[in-house]
């Protein structure tokens, strides 16, 4: 069997969601004597570098790393012309590497763009397996397209239930396997304290989608609130893609907006730490280090809730969120529409954490993640092996 793990994005934030599965699969194959060739394919130099870093010097045998690049002159031209505003290369790389994909028995991906192999190019092989990045509540994660995957590795009962109810995925094509990212990143904390004081540290983690994010309308007001605050420190670590391009364009609801630039005064503040896209903004360093979470739609809230702590949510768009599963995480703390209410909300979140919010946070986390004593990456690798062997058996009997 030949199994591919694809990393096709501008940034590194999706790697930890499936790379631990590749490692566990190689170790499982070696232990059981299974003939499995595992190919890890990256489409950007920064992705290849991060894959090698995460695998480390003790990389299991049976793992092959390859680079997938644009090959045709026309693809390269389109990427050059459109790459500043659209992820053109991310789409074109499939067409330019169809022979590679056809040679796989299984392909594990962390996003839905790869479905173009089925919908546009009509590939019947490989089996396509989704090991999703994040475990949030946004509606886009449960769109009808997800039913095109041959199998889904779900973090917990929440995702399984919504895949079935909203996307029509048959239950036998979903396996609950936990959250492999926890296997690789759980212990990450800053090597030294970020701030030379004992004030509570707030993590402000806005999403990039213009119709959901608090950044475009109120982000700078948030930074102003914390600027030289005598009460709080602030880690500003937004979604790693927020400042990747000059314009953010989303397709789930067609919107475009401009993130702008960060005024140097915020970087100069002793109580503000700004990180627009380093490894630490993706590997739970900040979600582990912060005392309070401030956000809107990012799935990182659930990683933060692995250890329940106070949360506050910004709703500048006035979404009617009550009872809406796409905003279920907003039950974990006070929800406000303007930064004018931020001070009171922070105090309320801390004062009511134990009596009101901690039980809610625990219930949200447990519904989102099914964790056991067995590492999630090993659970996922066992399911993956069974799925691929089932495909192999059905092919041989035809």
Report on this structure:
By secondary structure, the chain is of the alpha/beta class. The chain contains 15 helices and 15 strands. It has helices spanning 15-32, 45-55, 73-82, 88-96, 98-102, 116-119, 157-167, 180-185, 215-226, 264-268, 285-289, 300-304, 342-351, 353-368, 376-396; strands at residues 2-7, 37-42, 63-67, 106-109, 127-131, 151-154, 174-176, 201-205, 233-236, 248-250, 255-257, 272-274, 292-295, 311-314, 335-336. A 7-stranded parallel beta sheet has the order 3-2-1-4-5-6-7, with helices on both faces. α3 (73-82) packs antiparallel against α4 and α13 crosses α14 (353-368). The chain is globular. Residues 392-398 have low confidence and may be disordered.
Keywords:
single chain; 398 residues; alpha/beta; 7-stranded parallel β-sheet; 6-stranded parallel β-sheet; 15 strands; 15% strand; disordered C terminus
